[in-house]
């Protein structure tokens, strides 16, 4: 893979946000040379063999899921976290079968789990995060919660990297590019605490029975603008460096991921930025001298493929936008002027009455605080939806289970 | 890349048409194993470094062309054959600049040429194919003509494989998959006379402001049905083996390509089948004992990505459909019963009056009959649109021109 050079970055404490870089070639072959950043296939492979791809999934069709799976490089481990309907038609069973069949065909292994499985809730509670449970004693709904669950499973595998790919994607080739971009970015970042966030090239939308390739999502524009204002308020220099505030597609080292406090719902993606600013920004006292002595590079990469998915409608977008502003408003590192400007904007948008405060988004302790041994044992014993299809075993070859009970890493936080 | 096994094939003389195979994984990584066909990255690379990708282009936007180029693996050589408007806005100049800029960024070389360049016409005529010129003394319009020109240029490079990718493609990842499928198929086919034809997974279409993922093109259905009837008339067994009669996306060894007589316009793709049946089907006496002693495998591969391009309208489709039937009708190896059935069908479709014959499509001698030395010298001297941008030279590195005048292969046919 060949990326354009990134010349500029903005620093906020230990966090170093790199300007958006474009993908020049999906496959840079055997080329060497200057002027752009080449990540050879072997370097990509080295990262992929240590990478977990978590696919949050809600009510997607079999064909779409199959396509997404086919795009994930073989050496990555797939973890599907579903919150699909389990009514008269149990969509999770269809999804789990789809993953299993794919594993058989491709000779690979995977993990699948359902977010509302009572056994999963019991396991998460036992492992030390009762905050994730709702009044019914089940894991809360929400994308952030699915991502957290996926990260906990990823941590048990002992792999070093985690990437997220939404299941509602019509273009397997773009899934493929996302994974390659994660590997390329993590390779180039060169820090144990790195993050790669994707900005898609364009998003095809239907307008008057024609396709229009929109460059920026409605929600992303607002989120990015306010994250950049947050930075500018500190530096006194206007900036547009953040282009990936709402990036659903992103990856990071698990060393970083396990330290992050994830937010619930759609607040999860912008809150990753805010939590890095809070923990590693140097404004509040850091509890983590290791990270502060290192650095936290955030690479932002613009893919070549359009992001082509189902249209979830306006309500979804408005929700995402306001959740980003809520976390920004309530962050202890957001300066008063930015907070006031957010209030004014939300009132102006009709999202808030004068005198009201934005609601607080739910946030969770770092996944690194979970007791992974307990988590695994409880999942194994109680979570009926917890599956580990192994295509090697199905083909009569030696087992290659994604999680080795004897090798689960100790808690890190 | 991992492909599903192909168990069945149908033979017609030396031509062996393999049943459609699906892509299981775009990237099969370091895996080994049975049950499916794995082509490792190094094997793909070996083919790519000997492959030319010809991109026929007509009035596409810069962004779309850039995307297509970015999806073509680095080690493939790009040849853009344009028939774009050169009016007050010279679209070819924009295209050539786009290719040049891409070559500079990616450190690779390419060839571009315009189909209506008088210098190109003069060169083709000098090289021995005056049939390609129209009454104005220019190369005829038509996709087949662009493909032929691309193949002649490819032959001059001394590379061993040629693949075609249409420029009107919105998904760089699908271009990438096409090229990888070409390489995988040509690797697996294992004959110096091989062809790989692509059947795309689906084609997104707009219907009532919604997207519908159509599985089969309207024109392809008809073409495939009649090609299969052609085969069945010989074997007395109905068959559905041919699924790629109109495949615009296809690749072959140049050893095969240089022997084929290409048809003009949109007849080119179905006529490749018919010409193989005529030359290597064992019905007519073959002039080529080499090929007959070998075999001509045709691999048909279903990609994972949707084929997502601009809608060219109904007229285009009807034209393609009838051109396929014209070549089938007039082929000396089509049996009388099939010919009669084609006539009846065309009359029924309103494409023909009772008592009329279908028109003959134009066909050309094999590209292997061209004098490539003469062709190169004339292009170099007279064709103003003939460019060979070299990203290596632009970066101050040693030149890597696509064509080495001293190494142009001798004519083969």
Automatic annotation (TrEMBL), chains A, B:
Keywords: Glycosyltransferase, Transferase. It is an enzyme of class 2 (transferase). Pfam families: Osmo_MPGsynth (PF09488). Its EC number is 2.4.1.217. The keyword Transmembrane does not apply. GO terms for molecular function: mannosyl-3-phosphoglycerate synthase activity. The keyword Transferase applies. This is Mannosyl-3-phosphoglycerate synthase. It comes from Paractinoplanes bogorensis. The gene is mpgS.
């Amino acid at each position: 893979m060949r990326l354009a050079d990134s010349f500029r970055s903005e620093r906020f404490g230990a966090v170093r946000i790199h300007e958006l870089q474009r993908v020049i070639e999906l496959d840079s072959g055997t080329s060497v040379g200057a002027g752009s950043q080449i990540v050879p296939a072997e370097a990509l492979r080295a990262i992929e063999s240590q990478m977990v791809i978590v696919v949050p999934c809600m009510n997607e069709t079999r064909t779409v899921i199959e396509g997404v799976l086919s795009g994930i490089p073989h050496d990555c481990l797939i973890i599907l976290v579903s919150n699909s309907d389990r009514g008269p038609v149990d969509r999770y069973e269809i999804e789990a079968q789809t993953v299993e069949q794919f594993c058989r065909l491709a000779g690979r292994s995977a993990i699948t789990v359902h977010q509302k499985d009572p056994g999963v809730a019991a396991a998460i509670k036992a492992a030390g995060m009762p905050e994730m449970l709702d009044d019914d004693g089940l894991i809360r709904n929400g994308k952030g919660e699915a991502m957290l669950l996926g990260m906990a499973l990823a941590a048990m595998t002992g792999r070093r990297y985690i990437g997220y790919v939404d299941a509602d994607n019509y273009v397997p080739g773009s899934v493929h590019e996302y994974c390659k971009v994660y590997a390329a970015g993590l390779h180039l970042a060169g820090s144990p605490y790195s993050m790669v966030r994707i900005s898609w090239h364009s998003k095809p939308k239907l307008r008057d029975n024609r396709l229009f390739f929109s460059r920026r999502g409605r929600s992303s524009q607002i989120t990015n603008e306010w994250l950049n204002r947050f930075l500018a308020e500190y530096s006194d220099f206007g900036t547009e460096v953040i282009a990936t505030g709402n990036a659903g597609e992103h990856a990071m080292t698990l060393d970083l991921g396990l330290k992050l406090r994830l937010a619930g719902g759609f607040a999860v993606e912008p809150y990753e930025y805010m939590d890095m600013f809070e923990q590693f920004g140097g404004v509040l006292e850091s509890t983590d001298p290791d990270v502060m002595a290192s650095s936290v590079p955030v690479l932002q990469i613009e893919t070549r493929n359009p992001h082509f998915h189902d249209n979830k409608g306006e309500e979804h977008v408005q929700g995402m936008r306001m959740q980003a502003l809520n976390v920004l408003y309530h962050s202890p590192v957001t300066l008063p002027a930015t907070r006031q400007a957010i209030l004014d904007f939300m009132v102006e948008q009709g999202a808030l009455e004068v005198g009201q405060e934005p609601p607080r988004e739910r946030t969770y302790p770092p996944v690194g605080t979970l007791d992974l041994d307990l988590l695994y044992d409880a999942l194994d014993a109680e979570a009926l939806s917890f599956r580990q299809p192994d295509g090697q075993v199905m083909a009569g070859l030696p087992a290659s289970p994604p999680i080795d009970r004897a090798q689960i890493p100790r808690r890190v936080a």
